[in-house]
Amino acid sequence: MAIGDSATEGLQDIDEKGSYRGWADRLAEHIAAAQDERLEYANLAVRSLRLNEIRRTQFDRALALEPDLMSIVGGVNDVIAPRPDFGRIAADFESMFTEATARGITVFTFLMPDPSFLNPLGRYVKERAAILADITRAAAESAGVLVLDLSEYPVASDPRLWYEDRLHGNWLGHQRMAEAFADLLGYPGFEHWPEPIGGAPRRVHSLEKIGADIDWAVHWLGPWLGRGLVHMPHGRGITAKRPVPEVVGRRDRVA
């Protein structure tokens, strides 16, 4: 069972059918391949939602399906909003983590790396992101939730794992995330996930970086801000891609 926002929905890991796959789908496939019994998996995540919206629209639905394993990820959309309510964020995490684990569900989540390496706006939300990480970690530790802290692994800051929108992982980023969670959950054969990617990232000179930043602002930041200014929800019309549990097929582990 997976609930959350765009990261859990799978943006920007696009499969051969043009649909979003993502780390949660990939993790489900790893688990299915590692066990004999049939695995059923649902993903209720919807892009652009803030944590309280995730709690209100997904959490109770997820509990009603009586999962054994659940990912709860959110808060980034709160952090990049004009005025994040950290008190409510803390209360929502504490409530969801506590209620889910009290039902015997194994719950896991992750903490983002420092966003300042990723795009020009990262340094403006760096402090907020650190507060979000502290809140999430404290709530998780209190409730016995498993935590993957990406800031502890240098590979998470390799730009080759990130999509050109500088917000979401690309297919390789989602693949590494799925392997990281499989390792966190104790499945053998995934210990290699934090190893550096072969070679070094291409060096980008100052003028090229400025040009890339401008291109990013025009094609990604501008449209995103424009939708916000006219109060158009970024995920308008989007519904959960896998709202009910479905049997997971097995793929090649390296796919």
From TrEMBL:
Question: By its UniProt entry, which Gene3D superfamilies does this protein fall under?
Answer: SGNH hydrolase
Provide the protein name.
Lysophospholipase
- Domain spans labelled SGNH hydrolase-type esterase: 2-176
